[in-house]
Amino acid sequence: MYRLQFILIFLGYFLLFPIFSKQTSKTEVPSSYRVTKGDSWFGIAKKFKISPETLAKLNGRTTKENLYEREVLRIPKGEEKVSVSAESVLKEIPTYPLVQREKVVKKFSELTYDPHKGIQFQRGVSSLVRASLPGKVVHVDYMDGYDNFVILEHQNGLYSVYGNLERIQVTEGQQVKPKDRLGILVKDKGLYFQMNRQKLSLNPEKILERGI
């Protein structure tokens, strides 16, 4: 049941709509959290409505360090504050997700009658798809219209989606660096590329040109 809910959330809201976050009733925030398989700094921080950097600093760590299953993290309670310097928040400039620049054949659109939450590249000579930012592979799956796809989770609530893959060369939970191989494109399609920050769908073309 958990697996099915997970897939529905990612497919329904990453590929077609902005990321969805449910409103929850006010409950007391626990003082600690035990890490489970598949957790990340960014996922846990989102759950408790704090920044990943704050959570990591409170536990004497950085978001670059790996989490370990069943370890216990301290969670800020109430008015407890943890200051994070501006220098500690990594500002990444995305790298191009393909070996060479390809024409965008379908652009990002927020038009209600013709929405397109990502961009579609023209199929080029090289079929290699690469990670645009460092992060964690949080979902690998197949969906009609997008073929095989990979979703990466990055810092500061940012996610990227890579679709139209014939072969996938990463696994869920794997940490990747910029330009690491994610997979190989299908023969007749270019890369589908999407970026989100929390609820907001971002224009990937502008981000690749100007940075985040």
From TrEMBL:
Arranged from A to Z, the UniProt key words for this protein are: Signal
Q: Which GO terms describe its molecular function?
A: metalloendopeptidase activity
Ranked from the top, the taxonomy reads:
Bacteria, Pseudomonadati, Spirochaetota, Spirochaetia, Leptospirales
Q: Where does the LysM domain start and stop, copy by copy?
A: 31-75
Q: Which PROSITE patterns match?
A: LYSM (PS51782)
Q: Does the keyword Transport apply?
A: no
Question: Which protein is depicted?
Answer: Peptidase, M23 family
Organism of origin is: Leptospira terpstrae serovar Hualin str. LT 11-33 = ATCC 700639
User: Which branch of life, at top level?
Assistant: Bacteria
